[in-house]
Amino acid sequence: MTRSWVPVPDDSDFPVHNLPYGVFSRAGDQPRAGVALGDFVVDVSRLDLPHAADFATTTLNAFMARGSGAWRAVRSRLTELLTDQTHRHSVAPHLIPRAEVALHLPFEVADYVDFYASEHHATNLGRIFRPAQEPLTANWKHLPIGYHGRAGTVVVSGTPVVRPRGQHRAAGGAGPSFGPSQRLDIEAEVGFVVGTPSALGAPVPGSAFADHVFGVVLVNDWSARDIQAWEYVPLGPFLGKSFATSVSPWVVPLDALAAARVTPHQEPTPLPYLTEGRRWGLDITMEVRLNGHVISRPPYGTAYWTPDQQLAHMTANGASLRTGDLYASGTISGPRRDQRGSLIELTWNGSEPLDLPDGSRRAFLLDGDTVTISAVARGADGTRLGFGDVTGTIQPAG
Amino acid sequence: MTRSWVPVPDDSDFPVHNLPYGVFSRAGDQPRAGVALGDFVVDVSRLDLPHAADFATTTLNAFMARGSGAWRAVRSRLTELLTDQTHRHSVAPHLIPRAEVALHLPFEVADYVDFYASEHHATNLGRIFRPAQEPLTANWKHLPIGYHGRAGTVVVSGTPVVRPRGQHRAAGGAGPSFGPSQRLDIEAEVGFVVGTPSALGAPVPGSAFADHVFGVVLVNDWSARDIQAWEYVPLGPFLGKSFATSVSPWVVPLDALAAARVTPHQEPTPLPYLTEGRRWGLDITMEVRLNGHVISRPPYGTAYWTPDQQLAHMTANGASLRTGDLYASGTISGPRRDQRGSLIELTWNGSEPLDLPDGSRRAFLLDGDTVTISAVARGADGTRLGFGDVTGTIQPAG
């Protein structure tokens, strides 16, 4: 079994089988790329690595754009440097305690797309928002439904989330009113970060997923349910989502997740352009904590649509990919109540509030609440990989 | 009346009262900023202007980010250089015939938002897509409905548009099929380009419109109606739009359009955050030509929602603006049939095809069709300003 000469605690998210990329600074110095290992950040811009100059920049985009050959070459060499004792003398000076660094948004987001991949989630939302109709729309099992979100408000974990104001209409009320959202919610999702771009007019098949997707992050797609409910017909969610989307600071390389792959069952069989993918379902178990209390463990492995299918769909019309494109799974909910990835599902639109162990009760988020999502997956050699946390605290409306 | 020492044809889109910005190159040299005047492009990077170094770059973003003080200072000085004969000797060498240049996408698009501002258009689409319901949804007159589009597929005028493939379902048919769109359409819109960014969590009031918006372009938001109809419930348009959005190559400064301002009537009065704007309705008349034949003249002055209201709405939840954000009006249709801004309206979803003067007939676009949108507005001194063309030709599905 591969082991690093760097001591890594047994329960660390970041064994040497992971090696996720992020952007860090220490004491306000220039942000640069780093790789997480145990309790350290490896200052990779200082190591003898291919494309090391890419790591001296403030985002991962230049490295991400190089493509999967470069990603593999760097990962291979980095593994060698961190496992072979002979490199200890040259590498050790570039290990920085993680507790000493600030983490930044790891990549410049190009376009942001949010999908709707979880059948349990889509069914729950359909029942809540459209109780008189079939919960799943007629198209749902034929195509991975998605929409574009606001790339400019994707923020790194730890960024405070200001409660949004907006229009909402009380049930049975007259006209809409404007004010702070009263139904502020979370959405626990898995996000995919595009490295290799593609040309306009040239669809990317699902089989090319690993050539284009650099890695995986956790996403909290904060949602104002009252704003969303009033605005979303007929053109979809807009201000109910666009105030903030938080991502975890570490991008886990796709190559680290090969042992976590699963293939979901799909019935009916989708159209051919969607069947040559479906090799990158991933058994990732998320954990959602509200003020430190675990409120859900959404299982990404139960998602109906896989990220390679989503990639094929997103480009089937000839839409191009850019380095930095981020697409998220959509809220993940499992079949059990304690696997639901949003408060609107956990509390059934507020009608069944959650009782927290601290004696408080929640329908939706209160000012000061902190939500943290973490996740684990199987890595090579039977190891357990983590993703780091994506966290955010609600600030009162300004 | 202000006149330039550069000869400008009477019917030119680009009198000295306009001075729109673009990015050009000649004979494959380095793209750089230029300003259109009559039949020339002024190579502004070579003139004695404030911030001239900004103009030596391949996008307008750096200059756009400087804010309205800088925009006014440059416009003022540029007007002086181009109207005062004493500068003729130094400036004339930097006039390049427009026929000799290639025009590029003038700015790097950050986020792209498409609104739905025309009551006539929204009513027509409601009647076509949801015949059993009220054509306008209950929210329509309370908020400017909008959604995010794909920024990465915004292309400059002249870029070929490949007919998209996608899923569609024949009426009364069984499952969906996959193939080239059979209902490829246009949408004639006016677009607004953000220069000055804003902070996350800080809404931008409509009264600050001219501080943030740099200028105006024409937009053709190509749409595949069959793909859109099947995919858009419940999360809105996605692949039916994301294959291409064309913009005109010249960004007309807001200051050039002051004389074109109009105030639309709104009933009911919108909520207060939307009433302090509504000063930037613009009387711009578009013209849509299909293979050279005029098929419509959509009047932007009839739009229900104004761009300052759209800006206030888009940021009311605290969403930040970035330099390069583009937001479009939504398809503009007037009350008359020959003022409708899309083929789905002009042909009533294909049931009333257009007979073109060349003897051909169109329900939707055929391969090889060329669509060109132009527009005029009143400028200072009673002049007529144009916007240049946004054009595109349909190529067969690859």
Automatic annotation (TrEMBL), chains A, B:
The active site is at 121 (proton acceptor). Residues 113-388 form the Fumarylacetoacetase-like C-terminal domain. One of its GO terms (molecular function) is fumarylacetoacetase activity. Pathway: Amino-acid degradation; L-phenylalanine degradation; acetoacetate and fumarate from L-phenylalanine: step 6/6. Keywords: Calcium, Hydrolase, Magnesium, Metal-binding, Phenylalanine catabolism, Tyrosine catabolism. Its EC number is 3.7.1.2. Mg(2+) binds at residues 221, 241, 245. The keyword Cytoplasm does not apply. It is an enzyme of class 3 (hydrolase). Substrate binds at residues 116, 130, 228, 232, 331. Transmembrane segments: none annotated. It comes from the Bacteria. Pfam families: FAA_hydrolase, FAA_hydrolase_N. Its cofactor is Mg(2+); Ca(2+). Residues 17-106 form the Fumarylacetoacetase N-terminal domain. GO terms for biological process: homogentisate catabolic process; L-phenylalanine catabolic process; L-tyrosine catabolic process. Ca(2+) binds at residues 114, 187, 189, 221. This is fumarylacetoacetase. It comes from Streptomyces cupreus. The gene is fahA.
